[in-house]
Amino acid sequence: MAPGLEAPMLTDELLDAAVGLMRGARVAVLTGAGVSTDSGIPDYRGPDSPPRTPMTFQQFVGDPAFRRHYWARNHVGWRHVDRRVPNAGHRALARLVEKGRMAAVVTQNIDGLHQASGVPDDKVIELHGNTTYAACLDCRRRYELDWVREIFAIDERLPLCTACGGIVKTATISFGQSMPEAAMQQAQEATLAADLFIVLGSSLVVYPAAGFPILAKRNGSRLVIVNRDPTDQDELADLVINAEIGSTMSRAVGVN
Q: Out of 69, 80, 114, 128, which one is annotated catalytic?
């Protein structure tokens, strides 16, 4: 947050409106980077976000030197992975699942914190994959990062699949890589199954994820957007709350 700016406030009127919309609703949620900032993970577009030079999928696949750089960069970041824990926003969504109210959590995040908060795997739809483990690009066999770390520690050796010899990469969707068809289909089905669609911490500028709130509205669903800053789809929403996500959702779920 920029110096001198106060955090957005949640008013009782906005909270009551959110509770009213949530009462008895079948909920689907789209989460973006803003949900995880309270867990110490910076978002991609905020004023305090670090500069990023993304490696493309084509570079990773096509050149061992790029793959070595990729894993070296990840090697530096591994020491932070285990320190990330779910925050109040994640826990509020887990509570909605416990109440039997959640169709699915569709997420643009790759940190695995929804699962860590208690949301079952089959309720989390990861549009951009997951950075907490790796997978073979050919046969999709899963590998834990500890295994990759041990391989790479030997003279920066590149990990290869022990089953088929394929290239191993974190289970994320990189720039230039095709979106996962199964996840996209599941996200569409969850969106159409809900009568309340909630967007949390997403700027709604990255497609195809930003298309799901539009699909929900066209299907007759109510739309709630909770984000610190305005989004491009605020005019479509039945309710917009510019406030802290964790406290907003904790109070809304706790009193509903």
A: 128
